[in-house]
Design goal:
about 100 residues; mainly alpha; Non-ribosomal Peptide Synthetase Peptidyl Carrier Protein, Chain A; about 45% helix
C-alpha cells in the first residue's frame, strides 16, 4: 500500500508514530501509513468519536508524559487532524 500524501508532504515520523497509536489503541482496520495526516479525525475523515479520542488521549499521556485534558479549550484545534495533534505532542512531550 502506498503512503498517503497531501500536497506532496509525507507524514512525519511522529505523525506515523501517532497514527500507529490510533491503529493499535482503537483496533482500526487500516494501517498507520494509510491515515492521511491532514484528514479530519472526527466525522468524514477517520470517523472517530469522543470515546475514541479519550482512549487516544490516555495512550498519549502514558507514552509522551503529559496530559491532554477534556476541558482544554484548544481540543478542537489539537484534535483537528493527525498533523495538528503531532504538533501539539511535539511541543509538550516530556518523554
Amino acid at each position: 500500500m502506498s503512503q498517503i500524501t497531501l500536497g506532496g508532504v509525507a507524514p512525519s515520523t511522529l505523525e506515523l508514530e501517532l497514527a500507529q497509536l490510533f491503529v493499535d489503541a482503537l483496533n482500526l482496520e487500516t494501517t498507520a501509513q494509510a491515515i492521511d495526516p491532514e484528514a479530519p479525525l472526527f466525522g468524514e475523515g477517520l470517523g472517530l468519536d469522543s470515546i475514541d479520542i479519550l482512549e487516544v488521549a490516555l495512550e498519549i499521556s502514558q507514552r509522551y508524559g503529559f496530559q491532554l485534558r477534556s476541558d482544554d479549550e484548544n481540543n478542537q484545534r489539537i484534535f483537528r487532524n493527525l498533523r495538528s495533534l503531532a504538533a501539539h505532542v511535539a511541543q509538550h512531550r516530556t518523554k
